[in-house]
Design brief:
By secondary structure, this protein is α/β, with parallel strands linked by helices. The chain has a single domain, classed as 3-Layer(aba) Sandwich (Rossmann fold). It has a seven-stranded parallel sheet with strand order 3-2-1-4-5-6-7, sandwiched between helices. Helix 2 links the parallel strand 2 and strand 3. Helix 1 packs across helix 7, helix 3 packs parallel to helix 4 and helix 4 runs parallel beside helix 5. The protein binds nicotinamide-adenine-dinucleotide (NAD). The site of nicotinamide-adenine-dinucleotide has 31 residues, from helix 1 and strand 2. Nicotinamide-adenine-dinucleotide binds next to helix 1 and strand 2.
Length: 242
């Protein structure tokens, strides 16, 4: 009897890091459920390129949409073994320019980056528990260094790292919960972020920019570590050591 493929839902996988994670999991034998918001064409195109994959447009910051995303994933694939909570937004705002941070941005970045993973985790919990599955969060080194694209973004990612630890404790032994913390990774989100790019190449121990495949490889590796839960793995070429 053949073993059914394990199913992974990757939020924010229509672009950048999430798309690379989806491709890497597919190459590792997973059945992949893709998600994004406002870039449905790219998400559908990637799903079409990965046999067995599906794409659902859903806003993870909205609890109803997060529940629908999980429901449609389980309806399509019959099970759910892993969630990669990767969807996120950012905007570059100098940390000392407090007036440049409008209230709407604070609310949006917390809703998408922090409440989104909570919404999806809560909706997915019964399915993940049944499968003795796992959650991986895309945090950021901005969540534990005094740096990052903006203060609200960094605070949202600090919340994601603590949410990781809290959920790991609350959801064991059925569900493992870990996080990766990327440094500077070249994606559509960050491509124009000068002079940070030069700083990374000149000073980070790895002396190069990160690419989405660097993060995807770390996620696949972390997902295979069965005795690891509540951990945060920096994937930053050593940038957070500076
Ligand atoms: P990206 O802009 O290329 O991709 C973002 C993805 O999130 C897209 O698929 C988009 O559709 C999706 N998304 C946005 N809002 C959403 C919502 N409300 N609901 C569902 N999906 C939504 O960005 P990226 O650089 O690939 O970033 C992916 C993740 O990695 C984010 O959480 C980001 O904070 C984190 N991260 C990125 C870097 C970096 O240097 N690029 C560094 C650290 C952490």
């Amino acid at each position: 009897m053949s073993v059914p493929p394990r199913v992974a839902l990757v939020t924010g996988s229509s672009s950048g890091i999430g798309a690379a994670i989806a491709r890497a999991l597919h190459a590792d034998g997973w059945r992949v459920a893709l998600n994004g918001h406002r870039d449905a064409d790219a998400g559908a195109a990637l799903a079409a390129a990965l046999p067995g994959a599906t794409y659902v447009d859903a806003d993870v910051s909205a609890p109803d949409d997060a529940r629908r995303l999980v429901r449609e994933t389980v309806d399509a694939h019959g099970r759910l073994d892993a969630v990669v909570n990767n969807a996120g937004i950012a905007r570059r705002i100098p940390h000392d320019d407090l007036d440049a941070v409008d209230d709407a941005f604070w609310d949006l970045v917390m809703a998408v980056n922090l409440k989104g993973p909570w919404n999806v985790a809560r909706a997915a919990r019964p399915h993940l528990a049944a499968a003795r599955g796992q959650i991986v969060m895309t945090g950021s080194i901005a969540g534990f260094t005094a740096a990052g694209s903006s203060i609200p973004y960094s605070v949202s990612k600090a919340g994601v790292l603590h949410l990781t630890r809290l959920l790991a404790r609350a959801l064991g032994p059925e569900i493992r919960v870990n996080a990766i913390a990327p440094g500077y990774i070249e994606t559509p989100l960050t491509r124009e972020w000068q002079p940070l790019r030069e700083h990374v190449v000149a000073h980070a121990p790895a002396r190069r920019l990160g690419v989405p495949e660097d993060v995807a490889g770390a996620v696949v590796g972390l997902m295979g570590m069965e005795y690891v839960t509540g951990a945060v793995l920096p994937v930053d070429g050593g940038l957070s050591l500076l």
